[in-house]
Amino acid sequence: MEWYVFDTWIVAVGALCAAACALAGSFLVLRRMSMMGDAISHAVLPGLAVAFLLTGSRTSVVMFIGAAATGVLTAVFTQWVSRLGNVERGASMGIVFTTLFALGLLLIARGAERVDLDPGCVLFGAIELTPLDVVADWTVFGVHLEIPRAFVVLGVVFLLNLAVVVFLFKELRISAFDPALATTLGLHAGFMHYLLMTMVAVTTVAAFEAVGSILVIAMLIVPPAAAHLLTDRLGTMVVLSVVLGVFCAAGGHAAAVFLPALTGHDAVSTSGMMAVAAGILFFAAALFAPRHGILAKGRRSPRG
Amino acid sequence: MDQSLRERPVARLRGAGSVGLPEEHSPGSPLSVHDLTVAYHRKPVIWDIDLEIPEGKLVGIVGPNGAGKSTLMKACLELVPRSSGEVRIFGEPYRAQRKLVGYVPQRESVDWDFPVSVLDVVAMGTYGRLGWLRPVNRRCKGLAMEALEKVGLADFAHRQISQLSGGQQQRVFLARALAQDARVYFMDEPFAAVDAATERAIVGILHDLKRRGRTCLVVHHDLATVEEYFDWLVMLNMRVVASGPTAEVFTAENLRKTYGGKLTLLSEAATAVSKEAGGAE
After folding, report:
1. ipTM score here?
2. Conformational region of residue B189, where left means phi above 0, alpha means psi within -120 to 50, and beta covers everything else
3. What is the sign of the dihedral through the CA atoms of B247, B251, B255 and B257?
4. Closest residue in chain B to residue A174, using alpha carbons only
5. What is the per-residue pLDDT across B232-241, written as a single tens digit (0 to 9) for each?
6. Mean pLDDT, range B108-132, rounded to an integer
7. Counted domains in chain B
8. Do A178 and B124 touch (CB under 8 A)?
């Protein structure tokens, strides 16, 4: 197998996707709300489907906003169902997102005859195809660049997330650590909760095409969870989770390109391999982390 | 004084032990609570609470489990929705007085594996003064360091918070409240499951705050130390059984009214009182 410019774009898209996800995901992990990422990524589906069926295009801004709004609504509905139905938050999340996800699948299956939206792509993404959708053709220093749309979209979302994390770092930190204190200090924890949910929803929608609604959870949660094991400082954790995410994207695509030749299988999906790479990284972190790793703990408290 | 205050009905006295409940909110009072009711799923947790706390006192809040002690604090701080009633901090609604109020939540309320250092947590006390968007600066860290010195944990400033003992963690929370420099503090069980050294440290801090004219409301469990630690006492069991100077309201009768039916606590209370009575003679 060979490496083409095409492959570099795939890695770039994957890396931006992973980095954007890691920024939002770090705070989900710390708030012990990882499953909220899963819920939101599933629940954006009806938003996407409705917007898609209405506008008939996959590129519209309307579609993006519609889907992100559905994602945020998931958080709102979860709160409502939990309060009105008097059920525990996890259960209420399960009720809300499976319902919305089923509705989304139904809409897509019904609409699939008329339009080209494949449930497989929706679930696992189609990162291999993203370089085909070019929005700009630039020649920089004699190098011809065909910039994919997904690269631009994810780039913008990454920068937005970066801006939120940089400018509201102290607010994110205190509302994740001690929401009651944050509220008494006038830094409204409820507002920060919905801001984070909006970040997650927007990121999920942007990442949708690259990694799909199921694998996006791997990018949101696994790199931050691994980074959490490796450090005791929030800033370091966020930076590290971005680095690990980018590493997963590169490693995942490299594996997808070179693995089939080695093992004789044909076609390995890049997004699938990104999730596998993230899993391996997490396992390594869980084993070898300096303070929280299994080996380090074993060394500290020898049994017998 | 504003219109709504003058029109409020006269506060009713509740229970035989109620002492010195003024009939109106006085503007100078660090905390005055009027007709406060909080219900979860339509079941009242605290009911018709009237309180008037004088400034500069160390105020103990005692009552059996489920008496609504934490809920009372959270309702004052608008952390749980009130069904009815009114809370005033120095004569103004809480929202307008946020900066004057410090809160020390229960230690179990946060995740101690969170990736922050001891200094980071204490510096959070200064976030309110910083306001939105402004990053933590050197002045905040300086204030945090001073507060850490006061609780005797300066050497631990750069440790991750999970590396502290339970008592040290409680002192970190107190240091955070000191860094906030409020005028009235709400402390939810600071003495719960702490070592003797921490208990002494907390008492020292409380006295220091009192000397500086601060008011501290402390949810407390150990009846044996009530008279030693607090000069004002609120006895709570869904309603206010008694509120007043500890010497006047900490009586066997009020204890029975507060803890009535809870046999183990009742006997504990009886022991505490008889011990006190024995000591006084």
Report:
1. 0.89
2. left
3. negative
4. B124
5. 999 999 999 9
6. 94
7. 1
8. yes
